[in-house]
Amino acid sequence: MKSIENGWFSVNFIFTVLIFGxxxxxxxxxxxxxxxxxxxxxxxxxxxxxxxxxxxxxxLNSFKKKHIKAxxxxxLLLFGGFKYLGRTFQLSFLHKKDGEKIKIASYNVRVFxxxxxxxxxxxxxxQNSINWIKKSGAQIVCVQEFYTNxxxxxxxxxxxxxxxxxxxxxxxYYDIPPQKLGLAILSKYKIIKSGEVKFSSSTFNQAMFAxxxxxxNKTLRVYNVHLQSMNIDxxxxxxxxxxxxxxxxxIQKYKSGALERAEQLKQILKHxxxxxxxxxxxxxxNDVPYSYVYEQFRNHFENGFEEKGNGFGFTYSGKxxxxxxxxxxxxxxxxxxxxxxxxxxxxxxxxxxxTDVFIEN
Length: 361
Description:
The chain has nine helices and twelve strands. It is an alpha+beta fold. The chain folds into two domains: about 5-90; about 100-360, Deoxyribonuclease I, Chain A. The chain has a six-stranded mixed sheet with strand order 3-4-2-1-12-11. It has a six-stranded mixed sheet with strand order 5-6-7-8-10-9. α7 links the parallel β7 and β8. α1 packs parallel to α3 (about 70-80), α2 (about 45-60) runs antiparallel to α3 (about 70-80) and α7 packs parallel to α8. It is globular.
């Protein structure tokens, strides 16, 4: 059998081209709207595997001096997939900026464990979440799955947070007194306007915004988003036998969730485009950094983890703890000074994230 260096039509060369084309297609798959190309909904999930395969094949061929064409192929692919390395792992250093810093945090609190009101351990976890927010030092906190109940002292969270955050905007999707459940933005600065970003589909997921006056010269629009859930059944890998039916149903749910998130993305971006102020977008995106939704946000905004994060930055503390699905994005004139995933905080199935930012004039 002829090797790659002995002819353009050798078996090895054709095989290399097929691998090159396949990896390139995977790298580009998150550019296609899932509403138009359903086939590409699941393909972006292969991106981290392809990055590792690409690196392996590049180094494998590098040891064979005559495999010049293969080396060039995989070197080009390394450049093509380079951005995904930064979405997966980061090493960053503190970026000093003169001027007023603003600390912003985002946290999916899983309703402060209110569903487990009789479970002492869960109630302790809820207090962990509440105490972390109070002591976070953040001037602005975006809370997903926010819960308040003015008849239960430990869960009357609006009253509890008012002491630290005098300005609170709550947009509930469930509002039956004495309970509210939804999104909240807590701020030490004055909120001059707030409201909901309406999603066209009927879903309990939401987005909201608040215009926050930092000082007499600077106003910031903060978005708090909670996009459609992945809907992956956590029982798939719970037993010794692989649950095929659960796998197929979860794939279908993931596909429908991806379609919902793509639609929600359009409505959020449209709202942001009409913003008179620079924007920070925080929340639970329920999508991995290789997805169409993440790609579109990344095309328009800077990402805190990519700019100033460290390590893998996994934000989900549940069964699939290798996921980074919580993010803070920002307009170009907002500069990230640092970024942290607080993976020692156990009060929810998500870890809180925070960043210090500086708004350029």
